[in-house]
Every structure is written in structure tokens, then in C-alpha cells.
Specification:
The chain is α/β, with parallel strands linked by helices. It folds into two domains: 191 residues, Medium-chain alcohol dehydrogenases, catalytic domain (Quinone Oxidoreductase, Chain A, domain 1); 131 residues, Rossmann fold (3-Layer(aba) Sandwich). It is built from eleven helices and 17 strands. Belongs to the zinc-containing alcohol dehydrogenase family.
Length: 346
């Protein structure tokens, strides 16, 4: 099946219209007509080669929502016409301890990423900046009717990336949670943490998005550009979720944690971060990382968001504005996620 798409021809080059081939629908596969695809900062890092060499030409996109148009003979969970989504992975070994425990994202043999990975047939996976995709049914999520389909797209990466650590580290009533950065990830972290019942604080470079942060559910908003912020908030938080993809002063943020508090990195900067171990041992603090979630947890997140009326704040764009959108993401000029209307790809 040949479908329209947008691809990066080489590192740091503008994306261009193209046509790609999708595999035939096998017994366990689902064919999805993609309706919307979110633009993730990871897409930009990948196509720019920030995280190493990539298999160009490359079609990005791992925040995918659409409608099922065909299912394989062995598929029972999804039906033609269902609203579905696909996130950051489209396969894993299914046999290792992590896969068996529902942590397919940490597959010991390596999960298959939605783009720039090697699929089961040896071909390179191509992502959601396209009109259709064929995916193993086990990696297809159901999108509840309670979420607008376009606003649901970013939940497949940004949503689960923030939901997973909030859930794992116990965000809820009586917990003080800080979110570093109010961007594509951060704005969803605020919504989700608020819905979980936590006391939520946004830590952003300036106060220019303060009104938005409070509207989204934050109880407090502080500017990290003000050196006094770190003194005033010292030892305050049970959990800090760092969503930014740039370097931070890790020691300064660890100093904001209470006894037994945890700083979790979900943003993925291109350069290494460092810390002083005394920032940890002085108050039995932890510094952790987290990457998306397993399939069952991602479905749980979608159901949670539907129950609480949570979707991303989006700017819907046609395909011919993808390169412009990339520039605006790098300039932090989006509130808060670009979503491509894939009907404009044809």
C-alpha cells in the first residue's frame, strides 16, 4: 500500500512530501487511517540527528490517532470504525521479564520504535506524518469517546510520558508536585497531576505563562530565573517532574526536594547532565528517569484522561506548515502542542 507522507531526507534538512509503502495487513495487524499526528520535540531531535545517525529518509510521528479501516483475521480487540491511537512503540519481544510485566517500553531485546526502528520484517519503521499505518494489534490503543480526537494525539507520547512517573511516584492528595517547564509535556503534567489530586507547582524560567499554568490546574507558579525562588522553595516538594529537553542545574532542583523526595527526568537533552552526590545523600533524595509507559498503562492513561476531561491544548496545522512548526517548537512558540491534520497530506 502506497501512502502520502512527510519525510526528512537527511539530518537537519526540511521535511518534504513523499510517498511510502506500508506492509500488507497480516493476521495480527490493524490498518489505521491516520486522522491526526502530534509534533513531538523528540521528532525534531531525531530528524536533526541529535541522538545519533538515523535511517533517512525518515517519516517522524509517534503521537498518532485515527480510525481502523481493516483488521487481520486474528484480531479481536479492535474493529473497523474504532477510534484508536499509536504511541512511541509498535513492537517488542513479548517474552522477556519486562514485556511480561507490562513494561514493553523497556524490552530487554529493545522495543520497536514507531519510526527510525527496525520492524519485524526488517524494514525501517515510518511514523505518523502519513495518511495510513499498519501496526501489530497488541500495540494499538483504544481512544475513548470522551476525548476530542485531535486533542488526544499528544496523549500518546506527552500524556503517557508524564502520567507514568506521576502514577509511579504517588502523585495524589497530600503530595506536593512540581513540574519543570510548561511546554508540550509540562502542560499535560500539570493537568494530570491536578486531576490526581496533588498540590501542583509550575517551575518555569519566567512568569510569562503564569496565567496559563493556573488555568491548567497549577496551584502555584514560580520563575526559576529568579535566584530567590530556589531559596524560598528549598525542601518543599515530594516529586519534581522535569519535562525540559535542555540542560538544568540538577543540584539546584534536587535542593527543592523534601526528605525522600524524587526528581524524575522525562525531558531528554542532547548533552549529559551532572550532579553532586551530596545533593542526594543529604536528604535521602532520589534522581530518576522515566520513558513513556507500557501498553496497559497507556490505555489506563487514556481512560483516566477521558474520565477527567483531559486533552492537550493544541494548534492544528496543515502538513505544509510542519517545517514552520519545528522552528516554532525550538523557539518555544507553541501553546502547547502542534497537531498535523493528515487530511492535508494527500
Amino acid at each position: 500500500m502506497r501512502v502520502h507522507a512527510y519525510a526528512a531526507p537527511a539530518a537537519a534538512e526540511p521535511l518534504v512530501p513523499t510517498v511510502i509503502e506500508r506492509r500488507d495487513v497480516g493476521p495480527g495487524d490493524v490498518l489505521i487511517e491516520i486522522k491526526y499526528a502530534g509534533v513531538c520535540h523528540s521528532d525534531i531531535h531525531t530528524v536533526n540527528g541529535d541522538w545519533g545517525p538515523q535511517p533517512y529518509p525518515l517519516v517522524p510521528g509517534h503521537e498518532i490517532v485515527g480510525v481502523v479501516t481493516q483488521v487481520g483475521a486474528a484480531v479481536t480487540r479492535h474493529r473497523v470504525g474504532d477510534r484508536v491511537g499509536v504511541g512511541c512503540m509498535v513492537g517488542s519481544c513479548g517474552r522477556c521479564a519486562n514485556c511480561r510485566n507490562g513494561d514493553e517500553q523497556y524490552c530487554l531485546e529493545g522495543m520497536v520504535p514507531t519510526y527510525a526502528g527496525t520492524d519485524r520484517d526488517g524494514t525501517t519503521t515510518q511514523g505518523g506524518y502519513s495518511t495510513h499505518v499498519v501496526v501489530d494489534a497488541g500495540f494499538v490503543l483504544s481512544v475513548p469517546e470522551g476525548i476530542d480526537l485531535a486533542a488526544a494525539a499528544p496523549l500518546l507520547c506527552a500524556g503517557i510520558t508524564t502520567y507514568s512517573p506521576l502514577r509511579r511516584w504517588g502523585a495524589g492528595p497530600g503530595k506536593k508536585v512540581a513540574v519543570v517547564g510548561l511546554g508540550g509535556l509540562g502542560h499535560l503534567a500539570v493537568k494530570i497531576a491536578h486531576a490526581m489530586g496533588a498540590e501542583v507547582t509550575v517551575l518555569s524560567q519566567s512568569l510569562k505563562k503564569q496565567e496559563d499554568g493556573l488555568r491548567l490546574g497549577a496551584d502555584h507558579y514560580h520563575a526559576t530565573g529568579d535566584p530567590g525562588t530556589f531559596a524560598r522553595l528549598a525542601g518543599r516538594f515530594d516529586l519534581i517532574v522535569n519535562t525540559v529537553s535542555a540542560g538544568i542545574d540538577v543540584d539546584a532542583y534536587l535542593g527543592l526536594l523534601a526528605l525522600d523526595g524524587t526528581l524524575v527526568n522525562v525531558g531528554a537533552p542532547a548533552e549529559p547532565l551532572s550532579l553532586n552526590v551530596f545533593s542526594l545523600i543529604g536528604a535521602r533524595r532520589s534522581y530518576a528517569g522515566s520513558m513513556i509507559g507500557g501498553i496497559a498503562e497507556t490505555q489506563e492513561m487514556l481512560d483516566f484522561c477521558a474520565a477527567h476531561g483531559i486533552g492537550a491544548d493544541i494548534e492544528l496545522i496543515p502538513a505544509d506548515r510542519i517545517n514552520e512548526a519545528y522552528g516554532r517548537v525550538l523557539a518555544s512558540d507553541v501553546r502547547y502542542r502542534f497537531v498535523i491534520d493528515t487530511a492535508t497530506l494527500g
